[in-house]
Amino acid sequence: MNITQNSIDDLNAVLTVTIEKDDYKEKVEKALNNYRKNATIKGFRKGQVPMSFVKKQFEKSIIFDEVNQLLQTAINDHIQKEKISILGNPLPKAQDDMDWDADTLNFEFELGLAPDFKVDLSKIKADTYSIEVTDEEVQKYIDNFAKRFGTMKTLEKVEEGANVKVLMKELDAEKNEVEGSEKESYLFVDELAKPKKFIGKKVGDVIVVKSKEISEDAVNLEQILNWDAEKAADFDGQLQFEILEITAMEPSAVDQSLFDKVYGEGAVSSEEEFRQKIKDEAEKMYSRETDKQMMNEVVEELIKETKFDLPTDFLSRWLHFSNEKIESVEDAAEQLKKEENGLRYQLIESKVAEAYDLKVEFADVEAAMRNIIKEQLAMYGQSNMPEEDLERIVQGSLQNQQEFQRMADQVFADKMMQTFKENAKLKEKKVTFDAFVKLMEEKQKNHQHDHDHDHDHAHDHAH
């Protein structure tokens, strides 16, 4: 067997594989003998089928299978040995007149070669944001924590923030109770469209309102009154509520007891530390969003600034050949256009990983898994789990192939992001969270406009 490679240009090559009969003769004979021994064919006793009959029936398909196996092994070995970076898979050239009885068989395969290019992160410019958490935002967090860990108290009359237990009845046009409609329910005053109808009322008071005074939105009405969607959308009668009980959440005092409930015993020992921890946690949470934005911008710039050609003709033909759902090479070319940026980034990402020696070791995945499990346990108030129990959970998660791969991908993404942070030219801007959200919405709008504009140009060009 012999294999040679001829370059057509920098992005395309042809592999010629020559296979001699001696390369597969022995395996074919062995397979034929096995068929002869084991074949159950009408008119012949088992093991007594004439070899001429077995050859006539099976030899061509056995040769075909053995040759295909040889081809796959030879091509894969050649690509690995020569360290050829290819796109897609080798594409066999059509050969309609193959003589399978010949002593020498020749096969040709087209290769799409990965382009050779360099990535210079120092030339990539992008904006990144640092979200400042204001004292007002910290206070909102504190108020929410105080409410969440507060105690329920009974009120004499309805006020803002009250939770009202009611006996609800539906009324007909004559204001008579609709039979079977009576049920106990809870109304949260701050959710109501017309809370003033309830504020100031006491236990035993009866209030009659239209459904729109509870909520003008059918979906909200459905949730507030626990109705089905159809009833919430169609109901236009009146509702009667008799107040049974009025309660409200008494916020917790901002003291050591609250600090311990939120962050675990002894983790925070003063209001100043509590505020700082809330600020740090919020900024950490926001940093995930700003990191995502930074990655998107850097990736977009990398795709735009890193110039290289792709073997698009080859890839279109390979896509058509390998995907039976794609009906023509023209359709494949269209599909390739849609996926081109993704392919370009895959190639760029590989170059960055190679240039900056980004590797994911088992120890990296193990450490990341341990950290994330610790965070999850802390969320459920189990921050003091014994080390051996924690280790058991970590090792169990690492045994799960899917979990391991997901974490390995995350570790690689984090390493890539850190590489961008350290090497790209990032211009940091300090903003509030609201300003950041507004900026992102604006960028998204402009991005969509540019995309539509490009599409219009492509459409004009096509005509």
TrEMBL record:
Trigger factor ribosome-binding bacterial domain residues: 1-144
Enzyme nomenclature, EC number: 5.2.1.8
An example Gene Ontology biological process: protein unfolding
Gene3D superfamilies: Trigger factor ribosome-binding domain (3.30.70.1050), Trigger factor, C-terminal domain (1.10.3120.10)
Keyword Kinase: no
UniProt keyword annotations, A-Z: Coiled coil, Isomerase
Region annotation Disordered: where it falls in the sequence: 443-463
Xref: InterPro entries: Trig_fac, Trigger_fac_C_sf, Trigger_fac_ribosome-bd_bac, Trigger_fac_ribosome-bd_sf, Trigger_fact/SurA_dom_sf
Coiled coil location: 319-346
Pfam families xrefs: Trigger_N
SUPFAM superfamilies linked: Triger factor/SurA peptide-binding domain-like, Trigger factor ribosome-binding domain
One MF annotation (Gene Ontology) recorded for this entry: peptidyl-prolyl cis-trans isomerase activity
Protein name as it appears in the record: Trigger factor
Organism: Moheibacter lacus
Gene name in the database record: tig
